[in-house]
Design brief:
The complex is a heterodimer of chains A (about 280) and B (about 300). Chain A is mainly α and about 280 residues long. Chain A has 11 helices and 2 strands. In chain A, strand 1 and strand 2 form a beta hairpin. The N and C termini of chain A lie far apart (about 50 Å). In chain A, about 45% of the residues are buried. Chain B is α/β, with parallel strands linked by helices and about 300 residues long. Helices cover about 30% and strands about 25% of the residues of chain B. In chain B, helix 3 crosses helix 4. Classes of the chains: A mainly alpha (about 280), B alpha/beta (about 300). At the A-B interface, helix 1, helix 4 and helix 11 of A face helix 2 and helix 3 of B.
Chain lengths: ~280, ~300
């Protein structure tokens, strides 16, 4: 059909719609954007923002390490938690079913979801770095920004894929934030987000190496790290992040449902009651 | 080509048979009402036709498509008004209708749709601030924004006040006059009577009666009920009326030949100079017929 709307245009409309819903849900906006920012403020207040002198490169603040780590953390939660919880709730409310009953191609829906998650992640991470620069003397090395951008896109993309998986597997909307936090926050502790452990126990080390968050955090930190001088390209970490993103997308491919689950159960129960 | 054609439709949930061999043909341009008690299989049937559920067995063609194919061409030509209100609470009415309208090749204009469902003064209100009845009207708007050929209306006026219901009825009649096919489920017999060209009654997963609202369950051939206040000196009334009055004080008699029975009664009354207070002749309502059909099915 000649006048049929294109997938790209529909995906962009979906993206804008997801963004609107995000900013109109204050609790989501708070936890995604301002909660990680609070950590930056708290860490700096608790541990002080000491200045380290590095011979030949100048002086750097401790926030030079915190801010990128928390920026990566915020990006992960903007994608993983928001997308996962958003899908689970929208399914319970029958919103996904309504999309399914309209001629919205599934790829347009998915691209809108992922794109909106990555865009919000970009805003949250940029805000974190901007506050770092303005308030805590974080300095940005333009030469390393291409690597930072690649790391960011792969990291956010990875957690967007895992968010789709979370949304597909979570049994109910109400239970989904608990699942998201119970998986993401412990992982953050094992992934150098809050405290960088110099010589971690074997288990933590293993978790950090296998899951994508530590790769994301460390690769992103490297693009701001004053102790190193390379351009911070980290193909090994990028590969791990990409693999997890694809894995999440495959889980979603297999288990994603448009229909609310509880309604089927309820109506079955009702029918049984009536039949009996 | 018929708009909807169903042969031997079967669907079960676990060991519970929800739809047990339904045959149904709905012609293009028809308004068809599916009636039946809760749990009779109405919603399951409609959801299979919409493409929301998969069937276990049977042939289904909707506008020539198999709804289970999930084709975009199919979904461009149908409009669905769901039973549960499931609209995005954070968006305004205009934003929501814009979002869904953009998915169709030839959508109706958003402002026009909002006017049709009577929400013009709420056009820029967020959905979560609307009342239940207003949200149902948003539902209705989403069902028609794509200007579909076939519209599914699952209990479209449940929870409406009488004036909102009348407005929805005139909207549905309006859609019919545009040549749209409408499949409607409802609990309200007056709704089916007013809107539907044909009705079918589902119970226990099968269709137990089908016809126009005026002929369903032999309604056209059924006699009428004559009732009146028992007059003084009723002893020599025509025999068929010599019955005890009901709890309402009225003598009520079901007759097969209304004309003859009424003639006998009034001829007697005029001859005796008696006025028959509250004399009325009523035919069984669709609701009477529905209750007797579904009651039989429940007992049988």
């Amino acid at each position: 059909m000649a006048d049929r709307p294109g997938i790209a245009g529909l995906a962009f409309r979906q993206l804008r719609y997801e963004n609107k819903v995000f900013w109109r849900t204050p609790i989501a906006a708070f936890f995604t954007v301002f909660f990680p920012l609070m950590f930056l403020v708290l860490f700096s207040a608790l541990f002080g923002n000491e200045v380290i002198e590095i011979p030949g490169r100048g002086s750097f603040s401790v926030a030079q390490f915190y801010a990128p780590a928390l920026a990566a953390f915020a990006a992960g939660s903007a994608t993983y938690t928001n997308i996962g919880v958003g899908i689970a709730f929208a399914r319970d409310q029958g919103i996904l079913k309504r999309f399914r009953g309209a001629p919205l191609p599934a790829p347009a829906f998915m691209i809108g979801k992922i794109g909106s998650g990555i865009w919000i992640a970009f805003l949250a991470s940029s805000l974190m770095l901007a506050v770092g620069v303005v308030a805590y003397d974080v300095s940005i090395d333009l030469e390393r920004m291409p690597a930072a951008l690649i790391t960011f896109l792969l990291g956010a993309g990875s957690f967007a894929g895992l968010g789709l998986a979370l949304g597909s597997l979570a049994p109910t909307g109400e239970g989904s934030p608990a699942i998201a936090n119970a998986t993401y926050l412990p992982l953050a502790f094992a992934s150098d987000v809050f405290i960088a452990v110099g010589d971690p126990p074997a288990v933590l080390d293993f978790i950090g190496k296998v899951f994508p968050l530590k790769h994301f955090v460390n690769a992103f930190q490297d693009a701001f790290n004053p102790l190193t001088t390379d351009l911070a390209f980290r193909p090994g970490s990028w590969a791990v992040m990409a693999a997890w993103g694809v894995f999440g997308a495959l889980i979603a491919w297999r288990f994603f449902r448009w229909q609310p689950r509880h309604r089927t159960r309820k109506s079955r129960r009702e029918r049984r009651a009536e039949a009996g | 080509m018929s708009a909807i054609e169903v042969r031997g439709l079967v669907k079960s949930y676990g060991d519970l048979l929800a739809v047990d061999g339904i045959d149904l043909t709905i012609e293009a341009g028809e308004v068809f009402a599916l009636l039946g008690p809760n749990g009779a299989g109405k919603t399951t049937t409609v959801e299979i036709l919409e493409g929301h559920r998969e069937r276990d067995a049977g042939e289904v063609r909707v506008l020539g498509f198999d709804p289970a194919s999930e084709s975009r061409d199919f979904r461009e030509r149908i409009g669905i008004v769901l039973q549960s209100t499931s609209v995005i609470p954070e968006l305004t009415v205009t934003e929501l209708i814009d979002l869904f309208g953009a998915m169709y090749p030839r959508p109706r204009k958003t402002g026009e749709v909002i006017e049709i469902v009577g929400l013009t003064d709420k056009a820029h209100a967020r959905v979560k601030t609307l009342s239940g009845g207003q949200v149902r009207r948003v539902d209705l708007a989403l069902g028609i924004v794509g200007d579909p050929d076939l519209i599914f209306l699952d209990e479209p006026t449940t929870g409406f006040d009488p004036s909102a219901r009348r407005n929805s009825w005139s909207l549905i009649q309006n859609l019919r006059s545009l040549g749209k096919t409408i499949l409607l489920t409802t609990h309200y017999m007056d709704e089916a009577q007013n809107l539907a060209d044909r009705v079918a009654v589902i119970a226990g997963g099968t269709i137990i009666a089908e016809g126009s609202p005026d002929t369903l369950g032999g309604r056209a051939g059924a006699g009428a009920k004559i009732s009146f206040v028992r007059p003084e000196g009723a002893a020599d009334m025509p025999g068929m009326f010599r019955v005890e009055p009901g709890h309402d004080g009225l003598i009520s008699v079901n007759v097969d030949d209304t004309t003859a029975a009424l003639h006998a009664l009034t001829e007697w009354a005029v001859r005796r100079g008696i006025k028959l207070e509250r004399l009325s002749v009523t035919r069984p309502s669709l609701e009477d017929v529905y209750l007797s059909i579904t009651g039989d099915a429940g007992n049988g």
